[in-house]
Amino acid sequence: MESDSQLVTRVQGGDQQAFAELVRRHRDRVFRLAASILGREFVPDAEDVAQEVFLKVHHAIQSFRGESEFSSWIYRITFNHAVNLKARVRFRSPHTDETVLYDTATREPGPDRQAEMAQRDQVLAECIQTLPELYQSALRLYYWLDAGVGEVAELLDVPENTAKSYLHRSRQLLHGMLKQKGYSCD
Amino acid sequence: MTEMEPREAAIDNLLRRSMAAPVPSLPPNFDQRVMRELRRTSQPLDRFRRTLLVGYGLMSVVTSAVVMRGQGLEWGPIAALTLAPLAVIAAVPLVRRATQTTLRNDAK
Q1: Is residue B43 in a domain?
Q2: Among A75, A116, A178, B83, which is most exposed with the fewest C-beta within 10 angstroms?
Q3: Residue B25 within any structural domain of the chain
Q4: Using the beta-carbon criterion (under 8 Å), do B34 and A46 form an inter-chain contact?
Q5: What pLDDT was estimated at residue A98?
Q6: Which among B13, B23, B26 has CB closest to A47?
């Protein structure tokens, strides 16, 4: 199997089949990274980001000099693109209704308890929004998108220990925030 | 993951439960969509850009040749002054590609 750098060289020579292979190889991770930044409410936007990233990469591939891994380069482009989009869509109403978002959290007995848990989940979701982008992305990749620490590290282009510390620090911060707002984690 | 203290384990459980939602995935025709979009956006633009650039280049060459001739220069120096920059422009990408290939081979 050809390496990414061999495919990049072929694309730089005008080979569109090689670019199609790069898209096939990286599409899912690019999309997962974009989704982890934009959140559950904006999954269709993550799809658009993935498409725009590949168009951008194709446009800029002549300037790619192979100083870093192709995957690191494309994940960096994805991260920046998704963060920029997030800043623009922040005040737009989400694609998914919040009641749908939290329905998985309300399958417990007792309507009072359900309402209480739904409220806590909503507060938690709001607290997550206040974390730094890297922490938010690490949390969504790990807890929502079922990524292992290795994948989190790869997509955020950091060593595994750093990814672990992002998750650890996020949990600490969220615990403190919930406590401050009068919610327990149990 | 390493062993968590109880406080961290509690928020870990809460996050697992609270953030659990269907994992989204791209539609199966995503690749074709990207390639189609690529053809749609790049081809006509490239053709248009190329035509514009060639037109601009030809106009510049003719104009500068006429101006230089008007200043009393012979056709020989005019040709040299016009073709030398064009040769440099044509050589730059070739040199850059050769340098990149050498660097990549050195890195292996």
Answers
A1: yes
A2: B83
A3: no
A4: no
A5: 43
A6: B26
| Residue type present at position A159 | P
Let me know if residue B9 belongs to a domain. no
Search chain B and give the residue with CA nearest A160.
B1
Judged by CB atoms closer than 8 Å, whether chains meet at A35 and B20 is answered as: no
Count: domains in chain B:
1
3-state helix, strand, coil in chain B (%, to 5): 80, 0, 20
Tokens representing residue B9 in the block: 């384990």
Domains parsed from chain A with CATH numbers? 4-89 (1.10.1740.10), 98-180 (1.10.10.10)
How far is Cα of residue B1 from the mean position of the Cα atoms in its chain? 41
| Chains A & B: contacts with CB separation below 8 Å | 103
pLDDT digits (tens, 9 = 90+) for A55-90: 999 999 988 888 889 999 999 999 999 999 998 876
Range with the poorest average pLDDT among A11-15, A40-44, A181-185, B34-38: A181-185
Q: Quickly tell me which residue has 């984690």 as its tokens.
A: A185
User: Can you tell me the distance from the alpha carbon of A177 to that of B5, in angstroms, rounded to the nearest whole number?
Assistant: 18
Cα-only R_g, chain A: 19
For the segment A21-49, what is each residue's pLDDT rounded down to a tens digit?
999 999 999 999 999 999 988 999 999 99
Query: Domain range for residue B102?
Result: 33-107
Is there a contact between B25 and A168 if contact means CB atoms under 8 Å apart? no
B68 in a domain, yes or no?
yes
Confidence band, pLDDT 50/70/90 cuts, at residue A99: very low
